[in-house]
Amino acid sequence: MTDAQCACGALRLTFSEPPQLTALCHCLACQRRTGAPFSANAFYASDCVEVSGRSTEFIRVAESGRSVRMHFCPTCGSTVFWKAEAAPSWIGVAVGAFADPAFAPPSLSVFEQSKHSWVTFDETMEHLQGLPGG
Fold first, then answer.
1. Dmax (CA) of the chain
2. Cα 59–107–88 angle (5° rounding)?
3. Residue 92 and residue 22: Cα distance in Å, rounded?
4. pTM value?
5. Which of 14, 41, 63, 120 has the most CB atoms at less than 10 Å from its CB?
């Protein structure tokens, strides 16, 4: 399995299991975090992820009112992973941190209510205006 890492390699994640979900997110917070019109995210069981290197934590409040703890490299600034209060058994990892063009494609696209109109995808994934069940 491929490791995920920041741009300078100082913050690295290794995995003992494949992701439980790969999804795109179009929420405004993800747009700001990535500097792109959407984020690509892989979600793993927290107990199968090993983090090495230092990270700086930024805590933001999601639209749900719950906290999301974003971890980024204090040297290069890359956001590599996050933990959401709403899903305490999962860790989210930026798919770009794998730098692997063969990474599993997303099965879900969420918060399409704020998707840029020029962004289009095929129908092989589930499309939601908000979060699942929301």
1. 39
2. 30
3. 9
4. 0.90
5. 41
Residue keyed to tokens 């840029």: 116
Q: How far apart are CA 68 and CA 58, in angstroms?
A: 8
Model pLDDT, residue 127? 86
Residue closest to 18 by CA, chosen among 45, 51, 41, 52: 45
Dist. CA 118–CA 127, nearest whole Å: 15
DSSP assignment of the chain equals: ---EE-SSSSSEEEESS--SEEEEE--HHHHHHHTSSSEEEEEEEGGGEEEES--EEEEEE-TTS-EEEEEE-TTT--EEEEEETTSTTEEEEEGGGG--TTSPPPSEEE-GGG--TT----TTSEE-SSSTT-
Give me the residue label for tokens 């993800």: 30
pLDDT tens digits, residue range 34-58? 999 999 999 999 999 999 999 999 9
* Rounded Cα gap, residues 28 and 83, in angstroms: 18
Domain ranges for the chain: 4-127
